[in-house]
Structure prediction request, 262 residues.
Amino acid sequence: MKKLSKAALNQRFSVKETAPEREVLDKAFWELSQEIIDRGLPQVLQQAYDGKLTTDDYVALLGRLDDFRKIGVPIQCDVDDARLLQGFHNRKAKIIKGDICEERGHRRLMRDEGETKLTPQEQSLNEEIEKLQDQWPYLMNEIFFIDYLKNPTYERGLAAKSKILVCFNDELLAAFLSAYKKANISEQQEMLTILKEISFRGGAVERDETDTEVTRKNLEKLENALNSEVEHTSDAVKKFYANRHLETVKQIRQKFLNTREM
Prediction:
């Protein structure tokens, strides 16, 4: 049996050094030191600004900032709250579009509002993260719907049917209108059938007035777009189906307006 050299043994059994930013986020608080914080925190903040942290990591970062301030740990770098928020918004947008695959976060920052040292913007970020975690399954449904609109096959249509979504946002409206304009009459009918079966009211999803208002406005924009198509279509057959499609959208919009949040 070949005897391994001391250098080979050290290489085989050596423990990989943890990156400074991971130490700040992952180590137990009592394992931290000022040196670790000074080395790692600027890197963590830059990753947060760049939208490269997971939702759980954003929560961990907010928790660290709160703890550091409470016990007087010197923070040797500036914390730009506006860039923190923008970084999270960029991350969220990529998750919803399916550009980033990330599992649902489970970390929660339990802090008494009267005792927290987080700034108002940082508290707002924490609330947005909690909302994203609560809405996560329904936001994933949005990915199924956008997937279908990008390539309206029968199989993708089945995956998108009868889903519950948070709202009919600007991205969904744009994707729907883009797909609708490229589709033939049969595909347009199927798109509207699927949209009609989607719920923007039901489920255990937490919605606020903004979500409801966005859906209302965008359904109205969709109706106006299809109404414009009716007005500008001279072909009798196309006008007939354009009117039918417009009537379907009116029904969808009216159903939304008549249905109260469950």
User: Anything to note?
Assistant: The chain has a mean pLDDT of 87.
